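Data availability (excerpt). The following record was deposited with the supplementary files.
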Amino acid sequence: MPKPFNLPFRQIHLDFHTGPAVPNVGRDFDAREFARTMKRAGVTSVTVFAKCHHGHLYYVTKRPERHPGLRAGLDLTGEQVEALHREGIRAPIYISVQCDEYAANTHPEWIARNADSSIVGWRGGKTWFGAGWQILDMSSPYQEFLAEQTREVLARFRPVDGIFFDMCWDQPSASQAAIRGMLAAGLDPEREADRQAYAHRVSLAYMDRFYRMVRASAREATVYFNGRSYFNLSEEVKYQSQVEIEALPTGGWGYMFFPRVVRFGRQFGKPYIGMTARFHKSWADFGGLKPYAALEYETAQMMANGARCSIGDQLHPRGRLDRAAYELIGKVYARVAEREPWLEDAEAVTEVGLFQAPAKHVTAIESTGTDEGAARMLIQLRQQFDVVHPQSNLEKYAVLVLPDCIAVDAALAKRLRAFLKRGGKVLATGTSGLSADGTQVLLPELGIVAKGVSPYTTTYIRFGPEIGRDVPPSDHVMYERGLRVVAGRGAKTLARIVEPYFERAWDHFSSHRQTPPARVTNWAAAVEKGGAAYVAFPLFAAYANHGNYPYRLLVRNLLDRLLPDPLLRVCAPTSTEATVMRQKGRTIVHVLQYCPERRAPNLDIVEDIVPIANVALSLRLAKRPKRVYLAPSRAAVPFQYKDGRVEATLAEVRGHEMVVLE
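Predicted structure:
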């Protein structure tokens, strides 16, 4: 792939969604102080706003959408761009797409419609009188309205550094405009699948249109459409200059979203960015300030995975930045700046390919229990992995993991068979490699004979001695329904299924929860044949849903057989994350130890950084390094090199350590 262009490592995404009822907009704005505040905080790029979700514009224009409370003559967008540029700070421009209250109220016929003709919107509840956005239909004349605004922004600020288009998911609609478009395309507006397919066509068409529009105006400008499913990048990356992974851990995304998605998004030869925010909760949380430890952790995760950092904020309507917020951001970004020499052009070193579990791939915030559980488990096991799809370059991996429900068609089966013949290893679980009903084996190399779905909701796993390391000698409950399989010719059963006395029901049950185990069976829980291992349960979804640690031990012990000499070993708590990155002439191991706590019903947060001591690392490396040290302090780390591995012990890990081998 061609080398991507550089983007700054320390960015701010600055919202300004300001309702028309707010007066005195920009009253206290001081362009010089605005830019100098950013400079003092170490910021090198700020995404500023031309148009917000309320549909209002913040620059000098004759268009009626200019914010009615904006001080007369104030070019808020323009002054921000000019002041930032004077300080050497990049200033791409924000434009809201499918959220535009002005357009929705002025042209209600442009609003997207549900199949029952009700409007599509986030009204804060089922009542029309809730506060929230109405969603515009991009197959209506609204698209041309947006194009006119965009052309004006491009002309007014030419050449723009970039355009960030927001709220760009596939929006199905049953509006009159959408119905006409579907009929012209030979689609049936009554079918939900056709409405979804048409919405996707509309999205691809307008992304192509607006991408060309921006690049025709400013050849070097970046263009990004936010709100797209990251797992559609294979199709859509040609419309994206970079990949920005919006993931506010305390805002609904959680702490596993970014590290899961970045392992897919970094594979397309484009710069990639992690976006969190300074808010205690989510966007527009005025007065909500995140603890320093949380923001350090979130940016450390970005650095450890090779991503640029972006921190979200929202400017107060009067135009003055929050002093405390930029003291916090400045402290975090000073830390990032110190580490940039070991971040620039660093690429992830991986040896496991984790297949992405199927999802609708419509919006950016989507997950399945399977992909959540698989990513969490592999991170806890410190496996170095990417998230892949059937068309990915699979040859670069030593092990492929097919979690729970990966459909294997003839083309993928052929690729997997060739992968195994070359010496690669495969771990499959659930119906991966089988028909959906669990009766047919589509990848015979798994070494199993399938007999369909188990009649029991809950069964038990009895580990065999080959995979029993650290497993308590008990029959371990499996809370999710599995399959009935037996080992085929040449395969070995590594764990067996223990079935209960009976299926729990209203008219025959025993005690409070699942029926106790009654009999060990010939049904296999885990099977191994050659380079393939198979588990007869949706193991990763079960781990996401129940967090039962023997499931992780099962995967760990199977991977130990498939990958006996892993790239990295770390002797530390399961909460410790570790990644391996490589620059020319050196390898960097990132070790992260932060523990998010559940401190509210729907909010995990990091408030304290608790150090851990004597963390032993073992890294497979082809040659003995000349030196090993910590970055950015350059303090030497004693090490040994034996049998192709570097062995070292870190006296202390306080949050985030970078171990450099060169």
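Summary of structural features: Residues 10-97+139-169+220-344 form a domain with the TIM Barrel fold (CATH 3.20.20.80).
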